[in-house]
Amino acid sequence: MKPRFEDYPFEGRFLDLDGARMHYLDEGAGPPVLMVHGNPTWSYYYRHLVLALRDSHRVVVPDHVGCGLSDKPDDNSYPYRLERRVQDLKRLVEHLQLDGKITLVVHDWGGMIGMAWAARHPERVERLVVLNTAAFHLPAGKRVPMSLRLSRSAIGGLLVRGLNLFSRGALRYCATQRRLTKGERSAYLAPYDSWDHRVAVHRFIQDIPLRNTDPGHDIVSEVQAGLEHFQDTPTLLLWGLRDFVFDADYLEEWQRRMPHARTHTYERAGHYILEDARDDVLALVQAFVAEAPMANPS
Question: How far is CA 253 from CA 39, 137, 209, 249, in A?
Answer without folding.
Answer: 21, 10, 18, 6
